[in-house]
Write a structure and sequence with these properties.
alpha/beta; ten-stranded mixed beta sheet
Length: 463
């Protein structure tokens, strides 16, 4: 299937105002709030044993929760500390977790994807980082250089000299850097001060070492931002020519994330200014040659994500957009989420409780869910919508044995409304998201989310 990834996204302000409601980002389906504690360690072990027979390749995620500084906007699971010596015991427990996994897992399966997230993975001092990398190499079958998608999140402010070189020698070929905003006043308001010069220096070093992809994250809607100030940030970032850019909406949920209480609501841009920032950013990025991949993500035309979207092979998981579908995702570290076959499991979110479970010889599963056939169908639909902006009804019938209009008859009124409002087009063969509907793809996906009415969950706004 050929996907027209060159189709521009259109910012329809009236449509966005009408549909700008809260909704999931769909890095999984069902989403994490619907996991339950009935799913435990024994369920994960059973899933691992079943997966050995299916012999899918592996994807590994390591959550390094530590940060030296508290960024006020952050909604990640983290531990803020200046105690770098905490890294050693944490790495030792990650080694225990890997060993426990391997009691039930065929580790000869190739690791196609590897990701370090956080927190700040580069919080680890080089000796602890080297210990962790060596342990991963001992336990798992890594691919030769650049055959896998091996990425790590980098904080330029927490990067020891030589760390990038060590990562590259191990096989990492991608880095992701949180920038958020380059305006000094905005940086002070969110407690993340980082210069353009430092960012450029780290990117130049990464390129000289042969990292093949650099992704930068920006956030719009932060305190004291204006359309003019964010335009200056975007202009500076584009001159560095990252391979990928993420432009996220700041979700202000101080009742869930206490650090956000330090942000004055009166400093947050008005909805009108947020929409203007978004619209102007999309226009600027498209003029600079970036392709809108979807869900806040942009990439250069020759990037692997762009090429995968053209081919219809793009995939979305907890690490965002990916070119590696069909892997079993193993997750290590506090709060990390695994996906093994038709199962999700999430680790304990508290550092001490996570470590104590491992010290007693148990996989630290806190909750999870086993997907039924209907879940798998709806997950497939949501994944294809977020990656392709299109559904092929004949392909659904062939793969799942369902007639779209009959199976989803209860969704047809909502889809008809989306069609009347210009977000989608439907005929007997397909559902196609329009250029106006691309920014609201989360809203299109929500039509197929059977769990949304079942539980009151506070999500971020779509735009």
């Amino acid at each position: 299937m050929h996907i027209d990834s060159e189709q521009s996204v259109i910012v329809d302000s009236d449509l966005i105002r009408r549909y700008d409601q809260a909704g999931p980002r769909y890095t999984s389906y069902p989403t994490a709030p619907h996991f339950h504690t009935d799913f435990d360690e024994t369920d994960l072990i059973s899933a691992l044993q079943t997966s050995n027979h299916q012999a899918r390749p592996l994807s590994l995620y390591f959550h390094i929760p530590f940060c030296e500084h508290l960024c006020f906007y952050c909604a990640c699971t983290k531990v803020v500390t200046r105690h770098h010596e905490w890294g050693g015991p944490y790495v030792a427990r990650l080694e225990k977790e890997m060993a426990l996994y391997l009691k039930h897992l065929d580790a000869s399966r190739p690791v196609e994807q590897l990701h370090f997230g956080g927190g700040t993975p580069t919080f680890l001092r080089q000796n602890d980082l080297t210990t962790l990398l060596n342990s991963i190499h001992r336990h798992f079958q890594l691919l030769p250089d650049d055959q896998g998608e091996y990425g790590i999140e980098i904080d330029p402010r927490a990067l020891e000299p030589g760390t990038l070189k060590r990562l590259r020698e191990f096989g990492f070929n991608r880095i992701s850097i949180g920038v958020q905003d380059l305006d000094v006043a905005v940086q002070k308001a969110v407690h993340r001060e980082q210069s353009l010069e430092l960012l450029a220096e780290v990117m130049a070093e990464a390129r000289s070492l042969g990292f093949r992809s650099i992704s930068l994250d920006l956030i719009y809607g932060l305190p004291l931002q204006t359309p003019e100030s964010f335009a200056r940030t975007l202009e500076a970032v584009i001159t560095l020519r990252p391979n990928r850019l993420s432009v996220f909406n700041y979700a202000h949920l101080p009742e869930r994330f206490p650090a956000q209480r330090r942000i004055l609501e009166t400093d947050i841009p008005s909805p009108e200014n947020k929409l203007r920032i978004l619209a102007e950013s999309i226009s600027t990025l498209q003029q600079a040659g970036y392709v809108y991949i979807g869900m806040d993500h942009f990439a250069l035309p020759d990037d692997e994500l762009t090429l995968a979207q053209k081919e219809g092979s793009l995939y979305r998981n907890f690490q965002g957009y990916s070119t590696h579908a069909g892997s079993d995702l193993l997750a290590f570290g506090m709060s990390a989420i695994a996906m093994v076959g038709p199962n999700y499991s999430q680790n304990i979110k508290e550092l001490d409780a996570w470590g104590e479970r491992l010290d007693h010889g148990h996989l630290p599963v806190e909750k999870g869910i086993r997907l039924n056939e209907e879940d798998l169908l709806r997950r497939h639909i949501i994944n294809r919508l977020t990656c392709d902006f299109r559904l092929d009804f004949a392909a659904l019938q062939q793969q799942y044995g369902i007639y779209f209009r009959a199976h989803f008859s209860d969704c047809l009124p909502a889809l008809k409304q989306l069609e009347e409002d210009g977000l989608i087009q439907m005929d007997a063969e397909k559902l196609q998201v329009t250029p106006q509907g691309r920014l609201l793809i989360r809203h299109v996906c929500m039509v197929f989310d059977a769990y949304l009415p079942q539980k009151s969950v506070r999500y971020s706004r779509v735009i």
